[in-house]
Amino acid sequence: MTYVLNRLLSVILTLFLITLVTFAVTNILPGDVAMMIMGTQSNPEALEGLRESLGLNDPLLMQYGHWVWGMFTGEWGNSLIFKKPIAELLLQKAVASGIIVVMSMVIALALAVPLGVWAAVHRDKWQDTVSSSASLLGVSLPDFFWGIVMILVFARWLGWFPSSGFVEPSEDPLGTLQRAFLPSLALGLGLMAHLTRMTRSTMTGILSQEFIRVARAKGLAERTVIWRYALANAIGPVITIAGLQIGYLFGSIIVMESLFGYTGMGWLTYQALLNRDLPLIQSTVFVIAAVVMVTNLLVDLLYVVIDPRIRLG
Amino acid sequence: MKRFLTTKGLIGIVLLLIIAAVAIIGPMVIPPDAATAMDMTARRAPPSMRHLFGTDQLGRDMMFRVILGARTSLEIAVSAVVMSIALGLPLGLISGYFGGFVDNVLMRLVDTLLAFPALLLALTISAVLGPNIQNTIIAIGVAFTPYLARIIRGEALRVAQMPYVEAARASGTTDGMIMIRHVLPNILPAVIVQGTISLAFAILAEAGLSFLGLGTQPPAASWGLMIQASRDQLDIAPWTAVVPGLAVALTVLGLNMFGDVLRDILDPRSK
Amino acid sequence: MKDIVSVDHLRVEFATDGGTVVGVQDVSFTIAPGETLCVVGESGSGKSVTSLSLMRLVEFGGGTITQGALNFTRADGSTLDVAAASAQVMGQVRGNEIGMIFQEPMTALNPVFTIERQLTDGLMLHKGLSQSEATERALDLLKSVRIPEPEQRLKQYPHELSGGMRQRVVIAMAMACEPKLLIADEPTTALDVTIQAEILALINRLKRENGMAVLFITHDMAVVAQMADRVVVMYQGRIVETGPVAQIFENPREDYTKALLAAVPKLGEMKGKAAPERMRLIGDEAARAAQAPRKPRTAKVLLEVKNLTTRFPVKGGILRRTMAQVHAVEDVSFTINVGETLALVGESGCGKSSCGRSILRLIEPTSGEILINGNDIRALNRPDLRRARADMQMVFQDPFASLNPYRRLRAQVAEPLQNFNLASGADLEARVLDLFDRVRLPRDFMNRFPHELSGGQRQRVAIARALALNPKLIVADEAVSALDVSVQAQVLNLMMELQEDLGLSYLFISHDMAVVERVAHQVGVMYLGRIVEIGPRAAIFDNPSHPYTRSLLSAVPIADPATRRFEGDMNFKPISSPIFPLGHQPAKSQYTQVAPGHFVLQG
Questions:
Q1: Does one domain contain both C464 and C527?
Q2: Does C3 contact chain A (CB < 8 Å)?
Q3: Which end of chain B has fewer CB atoms within 10 angstroms, the N or the C?
Q4: Domain B62-270 has what CATH class?
Q5: For residues C431 and C495, what is the distance between their CA atoms, to the nearest angstrom?
Q6: C126 at interface of A, judged by CB pairs closer than 8 A
Q7: How far is B153 from chain A (nearest CA, A)?
Q8: Element at A196 (helix H, strand E)
Q9: What average pLDDT values come out for chain C (603 residues) when binned by 10 residues?
Q10: Which residue in chain C is spatially nearest to B103 when comparing CA positions?
Q11: By residue range, what is the domain housing residue C10?
Q12: Which residues on chain A are in Cβ contact (under 8 Å) with C90?
C-alpha cells in the first residue's frame, strides 16, 4: 500500500515536471511565438494583438503560472485553428488513438511472444536466424513505409480496407475497426520486431538460469520447462518492455494517423504543429506525456501483481 | 577480436561501407545538377536504362536524389547522435559516478523527459525553432539525450562499484582521474554500441520528421521527403516510395546488424 | 550386488567458436549401491561435465557425449546406457530414478512458483499422484529435510526463504521420488559454513535412511574427507587417481593428488605453534627453506579501532527518505600490531567486509575512532585522507573485478606512485619492475592486460598495486577465497613472505577458519556486526568461549577422513537480520576477559 501511495506522489511530482518541460520546450526556446504562429510577413499590429491575447507580453513565470493554473482548473482554452475548446477536441480524438494504440499492441504481442520464445529455444539454429532476420528487417524499416505499403496493397490493389479516415464507433463500430486496422497493423509490425528481439533475449537469459536446469533434472518435459517454467518468468519483463514502448507508439501515431488521415490525437498534434497552434501544441504535448507516464505507472503496478518477489517483498 | 566476422557482422559492415561511400563520395562524382535537373519528358518514368531508379513527379532522377539524400540523412543522423552523446555522456557519467542528490535530481529530470515520445519531442522542437537541417539536428539530438544519459548513467553506476575503482580510490586517485582512467574506458563500449543503435533511430527519426514536413525542407533531397512526395502517386509510380524506403531500410539494417555484433563483442555482460 | 552406475571411457566435447573443446575424456568409474563417490578437482577439471552427462543435461549446455557408455541400473534391475537413451526414457529417469542438486540455491528454484507447486509437479508426473496426495507427500518431504513450519513453507515463494532453507527444498525436490542415486554438484559451495554442515549432515542422513548412492562433486578436499567412501580425483578433463577415501588422504599415489592435499589447510594442524607458518607446497621447497626465523614481536600498536560503528540507510519512498538502518558494524574495537595479522572471521552478512572498508573510509563509519600510528583517520578532511590512505591499502576478493580490464598492468601498478608523484620516468619503471619481482610475476607481464592472466596471477598484481605505496597495513578482503586451493596456498605464502620481509600488518577478512588458523596472529570472530570473541589465535582455536565461535568451529569440515563430523543431524541457530528501525539504540559491546588478551562478548 505504501508502494502505491509513493508511486502516486511520484506521479504528481512528475506531472508537475512534465508541465515544466512542455512549457520550456514551447516557450523558452528562441523564436517569437507570435511570429511563429502568424508568419514573418504579418503586420506589426496584428502581431502585437496576438501577443496581447495570448499573454505573451507577461513575464515568462507568470505565463507559466497562468497556463498551469488553466490546465489544473480545466480551462484549457481554445484551439486557434479549429476554433474549438481544446479539452473537447482532445477528448474526442483520444478514443480514436486509444483504439489503434491498443490494437497495435495486441497485434505486436500476439506475434512477438511466440516468435521470441521460438527463437530463444532454438538459439543459434536456423529458427533463430529466421526470427532474428525478420525482426531486424522489421525494426529497420520506418513504420510509415509499412503504412504506405499497406495502403498500396490492402487498400488500393486488394481493396479490402478503406485507406483513410475515421468514423465514430457510435455510428459504425465495424467501420471504426476497419479503418483502424491498417494503421494498427503498420504500427504493430514495427513494434513486433522490437518486442520479438526483447522476448528472445529475456527468454535466453531465463533459459540459462539454474532453476531451468533443476526443472529438467526433475524430468519435466521440455515443453513444460519452456512454456510453463520459463515463460512464467518472462511475462513480467516482456510486459514491462512492451509498456515502455507506449511512448514510442504515441510518437509513431503522429506519423501514422497523418498518413492514414485517421483523425486521432496524433493527427491533431500534427495539425497543431504544422499550423503553429501554440495552445493546442502545449495541451497535446502535455496530454501525451501524461498518458505515457500514467501507462508506465500502470504497467509497473501490473508487474507488482505478476511477480511475487515484489508483491510480497 | 573473435566472432567479429560472423555473417551478420560482415553484411552489416559491407552495407555501412557502401552507404558511407555513397554519402561521402557520391555527391562529389555525380554531375552537379543531376539531382535537380527536371526531365519533363520523363515524369514518373519507371526504372530504365536512362533512369536506373526511375524519376519522380518532376522528372528528377531518383538515383541521384537518393545519393544526395544519403548525405543529408547521414549528416543529420551523425550530428544529432554526436550531440546527444556530448550532452548525455557528462550528464550520465556524473550522475552515475557520484550518485546521491545530484543523481536523484538529474535522473528525475531524465525520467520526465522520457515520458515525452522522442519523435513528439523532436517534432515540437523542430516546429518551434522552424524546420531546417540545423534545427532538425538539434531537435533529434535533444530528443535522444535522455535515452543516452540514462544508459550511460547505468553503466557508470555499475563501473563505479567495481573493486578496481575502489582500489584506485584507496591508492589516492582523485575522482576526476578515476572517471577518466577507469570509468570512461569501461563505459565506452556501451556508449559505442548505443551510439550505433541511436544512429539507426536517428535515420528513422529524420525520415519521419521530413516525411511530416517538419525536418529537411525542399528543395533539399532527403529520403523522408521523397517518401512523402510518393504518397499521392503510389498507384502509378510505386518506385518513388520503394527506392527511398529501401535506402532507409538498408542503412538502418546495416547499423542494426553492426550494432548487434558490436554489442556481442563489446558488452561484457553478453559474454 | 550390481553397481548402480558404471561409466566407461566417457568423452564429452563442446562445440565453440574456436572449434571443438574436449570437456572430459577417458573417464571411467563405478558407484556401488549406497556408496558415496566424491569427484574432486579444481575449476576446469571436468567434474561437473561428468555429473551433467550422467543426467544427459550436458547437451543443454552445448556438450555432446561422443564416446563411452554411462550404464545405470534402473529400479527394475535392467541396465540402461544413458548415453544412448531416448529423450522419453531420460524423462522417466531424471528426477525419478536419479535426483540432482546444484550449487546455487538462490537461483535453483523458480521465483514465480510456490514451493508446493515445485515440489509436487515431479511427484504427479513420475508417481501419478493426485494434487492432494502430492501435497501430502511434499509436506512429508519438507519434514524429512527438517524445514521448520513446513505447512507454511508450501504456500511461500522461494525469495521468502533463506539460502540454506532453499537448498533444503532443492534436496527435498531431488528426494521426492526416492531415487537410487543422488547427484550433488557442489551443493554447499555457495553456503556459509554452518549451513554447509547442516546440509552435509542432511545428505548423509538421507543417504543412510534411503540406502541411496551419492555422486558428490566438489572442489573442497575437506568436504571430500568428510563425505566420501571413495574418491575420484580429476584434472583437466581426465581422472588422475581413484581410490578409497582413506587411501587417497593417507597414501596418495599421484603427484597431483599430493600437491592438492598439501595445499589444503587442515583445521587443528597449527595446534601448539606460536606464529603463522607458510604452507609446505610441493615444488616450493626453496621458498620454504628461505623462510627466515621469526623475529620476536615488538608488540607495537599500528592500528587501533575503538567503538567503530557503520550503519547503512535503507531508503524508500518518493523522497528517498531513510526508513531503517542496516547495522553493519556495531561497536567494534580491536588493535593490530606492527607486522601482525588480525583475522576477522564470520559468515556472510556479519559485517566483516564493511568493517574493513570503514577503516579506509571507503564507506563512511557512523561513529568511532580509527587511529593509525595515533593519527585519527575519521578526523581527516578529504586531501589529508587521501594522503593517509597511502598507509593502508586493500586487496579485494574477485580477481576478475579488481583490475581495470582496459589498462595495462604496468599502468595499474604505477598509478598509486603517480598519484603522489613518488616516481616518474626511469625511476617509476624501476619501482614497478621491483614490485613485479616482489610478487613473483615475470617482468614481461607488465605489458599485458588483465584478461591475459589467471586468477592467481591477477591477485598477485592486485597485491603489487597495494604494495606500491609502501603501506603499513593491508586490508585483505577475502583475498584468496575465489582462488583454486593450490593457487590460494601460493598467494597465502606470498602474503606471509611479504609480511616477514616488509613488516606489513594485515587485516585478514575471511570466512575460512582453516585458512585463518594458518595466517593469523590474532583472531576476531564477528557475528551480526559485533566482535563476539577476540584474542590470540591459539586461544580462539583451543579454547573457543563464545557459543557462536564454538558452533562455527564445530561446523568446519576437516580435511581428514579419520575425523568425521557430520554423521548426526546438525542444527545451528539461524542468523537474524541486522536491519533495525531508525533510532534503534543497541547496547554497547561489553567484554569479559577469559585469559590474557582473550575477550568474549557478554550477554
A1: yes
A2: no
A3: N
A4: mainly alpha
A5: 19
A6: yes
A7: 18
A8: helix A173-207
A9: 90 85 93 94 90 92 91 91 92 93 88 92 91 93 88 90 89 91 92 90 90 94 94 94 95 93 88 82 58 62 94 73 86 94 92 93 93 91 90 91 92 93 90 93 91 91 94 94 89 92 94 93 94 94 94 92 84 80 87 93 86
A10: C320
A11: 5-262
A12: 219
